[in-house]
Structures are given as structure tokens and as C-alpha cells.
Specification:
There is one protein chain. The chain is an alpha+beta fold. It has eleven helices and eight strands. The protein starts with 6 loop residues before the first helix and ends with a helix.
């Protein structure tokens, strides 16, 4: 059968085939595509790759905020030991030596020593010796002091509060590290997508240039691709700078400057938020680091709120603060209670004239011993204690109001974050389909362009649609991961901060 294709059409296809063959000879082979090399100043020197769980462990050991909170916890432990000192007996030793260069002289009536002396006559009498030694050992044992026992309880509550503050600081640091880690992932993904986009435009530019030489493409097609490439290349350099900045921020959080040149494990473009088992090992680690079930449906909003009321650190801190302030108020109320203590003294005194000899001889020393019970009870303090009790009661009520507000704010935050996480997960599923459709559309338009069935405008639009859909998917996955990290902190289930005592004692 004779073909009905016209001779000009055949000639055009022949020229197009020759141009594409020349382009294939000059272009790299499939699978060995040229990579876009960023400027030397923006190229990160990657020395290692760090995973998310490794970053969290490093942060819990080295982050300065965690170290500061741990030092405050050590101080609270010392305060507990100090409070116990009010229960134990106290023993004091006083010792002194005095050299009387000019001993004290007093004047007494002379009639004391001479009955015949006149009533106004005085006689000089020297008091004290040249050397005077004095030493006293005092022992005091509290028998009853209600404020001391309440102070012990207050110290214990303060220690528990500081421990919870360490837990809260760790949760905040872990959340910051997770979000910063996701920032690095997003920056790396944006740089990779821009590299892919630049490479696609460069391939299209080479094809359009060859086709223009063959007479089957217009000069406008080449100019349009050159303009698009000129617009993309500065964005590519900017994206590499963003990667370096995100890595530096992560290095600051980990207090490890060497990590600013390290890449992070995981790829947002390949991460499937709806199914944990379908991901690569690196992406499974990214999803698995969570205080809530990863890769599965979230608990109900009511369950998340109940979890936050029970586990959230700031609510716990306010509850402990309320208990501590209430104990302080009880201490003020018991200031009216009597204080009973047992005391005992043992004294050694000695005086000697002439050259000093330590405590002199047996005839120059004296001993004193005493023991007793003391009872102290305030009768009137100018209404000071009553005013202090009112102050403490007002502080307790203030903390109770703050706790109620914190619970309401926690509920609102948890519900909003749960909605954000669900919305981002749904958006990611939709964008995954959009990426597949955009990739297929770009392939179809590219084939049609090489066959002369479509123009460069359609091909450019398909490339822009593919680039935008890939960006949107990466952004949706990033939004989901950030919302999950914030939701973990809002519910008090931040990963790696289950046992504060184990971390603060054994992790250093």
C-alpha cells in the first residue's frame, strides 16, 4: 500500500531524526546524566551522614539548655540535703586565747579589805590574768519543729519540680532538633529538585538548539529555554546556601560544630507518610522517631487531650508548683507552733600569769557542764505572719488559675496540631498522585515535542508543573513531620525523654 504521507513531512522527519542522532552523540548516555555542580563556595563538604535518632541522642547529651536544666536539678538535690540539716543535731566549738597586755583594773571600796578605811576611800583591784583560755562545745538537738518537716516536704517538691523542668527542657530540645532536622531534609530536597529541574531544562535546551539548526524549531523556543535556565541557576545556588544554613542550625542544636558539614539521612521525595513499611530504612527511621504511633492513624482528639493533661510537662510543672506553694503556705501557718530543742554545753576555761602554757596547770583550769530543754513560741510578731499567710494563699490561687489556663490552651493546641497533621498527611497523599501525573505528562509532552506535535511552550509548562508538584509533595511531607513533632511535645510524649533520671544520671 502506498503511503499517503507527503514528501515535505517526510523530509521534516528526516531532518528531525538526524538532529536527534547528533544530540544523542553529544549528550551523556542514559544513567550517566551530568550532575549540576554548584559553585565551590556553596558546595557543602559532607564528611558523614547522621540519622534522626542519633541527632536526638547527641542533643540530649550535649545541648546547652539540657545541661543548664541538669545543673539546676543538681542544685535542687543539694537543697534537699540542706533541708535535712534541720533534723540532725548541730555541734559547735568555740575556742579563744587572750593575752592581756594591760590587765583590766577596777576600783572597789577600801572598806571591803580594811574596815578602818574611810567611806570614800577606793582601792585598785586587778581582774584577769596575763593569759586567758576559753573553749565551749555546744550541742543542740531539735525535738519538735513542725516547719522543719514541712520544709523537707517543700524541698522534695522543689526537687521534683526541677526534675520535671529537666524533662520539659529535654522535650523542647528534642522537638527543636526534630524540626531543624526536617528543615535540613526540606532544604536538601529543594536543592535536589532544582538540580533535576536545571538538568531537564539543559537537556531541553540542547534538543531545541539542535532542532533549530535542523530548521524544525524556532529561535523563540531556544530563547525561552535560555531565560528559564538563567532564572533557575541563581535559585539553585540559593538552595545550596539554604542547605548549609540548615545544617549549621542543626550543629548549634547538637553543640557539635563538626556536624555542620554532615548530611542527614532520609529523602522527602521518597517518604510515604501513610505506610511505614513501604519506606526505605532511612525514611523508616525518620517516621519511627515519634512519641505517638508512627505510620498509622492518630488517636482521637479526646484521647490526645487526655494524654496532654496527664503527660504534658508545663501542666505537670504547674501542678508541682501549686503543691510547693501550698506547702510554703503551711510553713507560714506553723510559724505559730512552738519549737522544742534539747541543748548541752561543755566549757573549759583557764587563766595564767607570766609566760603562756597551753591551758595552764590543773589548778588554773575550770570546767562547766550544763544541759536543758528550750521551748520557743512566738506570741506577737506585729501581724507579720498573718500577712505572709495571705501572700502565700494568693500565690497558690494564682498558680491554680495558671494551671487551668494551661490545660485549656493545651487542649486547643493539641486539637489544632492533630488537625494539621491529618491535613498534611492527606495533602501528601494527593500530591504523590499529582507528582506521578506530572511526570507522565512531562514524558508525553516531551515525546510529542520531539515528534513535532507540540511546541516548546507546552513542554515548558509541563516541566514547571512537574517541578511545582514535586515541591508541593516535599512541602506536604515536611508539614506533616513538623506537625507530628509539635504534637508529640504538646501531648508530653516526646521520644527519648521517657526516663529523666536515667538520662541525667547515666547519659553523661
Amino acid at each position: 500500500m502506498i503511503s499517503t504521507v507527503s514528501f515535505p513531512r517526510l523530509l521534516r522527519r528526516a531532518w528531525l531524526t538526524a538532529a536527534l542522532c547528533a544530540l544523542a552523540t553529544a549528550a551523556p548516555a542514559p544513567g550517566v546524566a551530568q550532575s549540576v555542580t554548584p559553585p565551590a563556595a556553596a558546595t557543602p563538604v559532607v564528611s558523614d551522614t547522621i540519622t534522626l535518632d542519633e541527632a536526638i541522642r547527641v542533643a540530649l547529651r550535649r545541648n546547652r539548655d539540657v545541661r543548664t536544666a541538669s545543673l539546676a536539678l543538681e542544685e535542687a538535690g543539694s537543697l534537699v540535703s540542706e533541708a535535712w540539716s534541720g533534723v540532725y543535731p548541730s555541734v559547735d566549738l568555740d575556742a579563744s586565747y587572750t593575752r592581756n597586755i594591760s590587765p583590766t583594773v577596777s576600783f572597789l571600796p577600801a572598806q571591803i579589805f580594811d574596815p578602818d578605811a574611810g567611806p570614800d576611800d577606793l582601792i585598785r583591784v586587778r581582774f584577769g590574768a596575763d593569759n586567758v583560755w576559753a573553749s565551749t562545745i555546744r550541742l543542740e538537738q531539735p525535738l519538735f519543729n513542725a516547719t522543719v518537716f514541712l520544709a523537707l516536704g517543700a524541698a522534695g517538691r522543689f526537687h521534683a519540680l526541677q526534675e520535671e523542668m529537666v524533662r520539659g527542657a529535654m522535650q523542647t530540645v528534642v522537638t527543636r532538633v526534630r524540626i531543624t532536622y526536617y528543615d535540613v531534609l526540606l532544604a536538601q530536597e529543594q536543592a535536589r529538585l532544582l538540580e533535576s529541574s536545571v538538568e531537564r531544562v539543559r537537556v531541553s535546551l540542547r534538543e531545541a538548539t539542535a532542532m533549530r539548526k535542523a530548521g524544525v524549531a524556532s529561535e523563540y523556543d531556544v530563547l525561552r529555554l535560555e531565560v528559564e535556565l538563567a532564572n533557575l541557576e541563581p535559585n539553585l545556588r540559593r538552595s545550596h546556601n539554604a542547605v548549609a544554613q540548615a545544617r549549621r542550625a542543626l550543629a548549634v542544636e547538637l553543640a557539635t560544630p563538626g556536624l555542620e558539614h554532615s548530611a542527614v539521612a532520609g529523602t522527602l521525595a521518597e517518604l510515604d507518610v501513610s505506610a511505614l513499611e513501604t519506606n526505605t530504612p532511612a525514611n523508616r527511621t525518620v517516621l519511627a522517631v515519634s512519641g505517638l504511633p508512627a505510620g498509622s492513624a492518630l488517636p482521637t482528639a479526646d484521647a490526645l487531650v487526655a494524654m496532654a493533661h496527664q503527660e504534658r510537662s508545663d501542666i505537670r510543672q504547674l501542678e508541682l508548683t501549686r503543691s510547693l506553694r501550698h506547702t510554703e503556705m503551711r510553713v507560714e501557718q506553723l510559724e505559730y507552733a512552738p519549737k522544742i530543742a534539747l541543748f548541752a554545753n561543755y566549757q573549759i576555761n583557764a587563766q595564767q600569769n607570766g609566760a603562756p602554757t597551753f591551758f595552764g596547770s590543773a589548778q588554773e583550769r575550770s570546767y562547766g557542764r550544763l544541759a536543758g530543754v528550750s521551748v520557743t513560741m512566738p506570741l506577737f510578731t506585729g501581724f507579720r505572719e498573718r500577712a505572709r499567710i495571705r501572700q502565700r494563699r494568693a500565690v497558690v490561687r494564682t498558680v491554680e488559675a495558671q494551671a487551668e489556663l494551661a490545660r485549656d490552651q493545651a487542649e486547643a493546641q493539641v486539637r489544632s496540631l492533630a488537625e494539621s497533621a491529618q491535613e498534611a498527611a492527606a495533602r501528601a497523599d494527593g500530591q504523590r498522585l499529582a507528582v506521578r501525573q506530572a511526570q507522565r505528562g512531562f514524558q508525553i509532552v516531551g515525546a510529542q515535542y520531539r515528534e513535532g506535535l507540540s511546541g516548546q511552550l507546552e513542554r515548558t509548562d509541563a516541566e514547571v508543573a512537574l517541578r511545582q508538584s514535586e515541591f508541593n509533595y516535599a512541602q506536604a511531607v515536611y508539614d506533616y513531620l513538623v506537625a507530628r513533632a509539635q504534637l508529640d511535645e504538646a501531648t508530653g510524649r516526646t521520644p527519648g525523654v521517657d526516663d529523666v533520671r536515667q538520662i541525667t544520671r547515666g547519659g553523661r
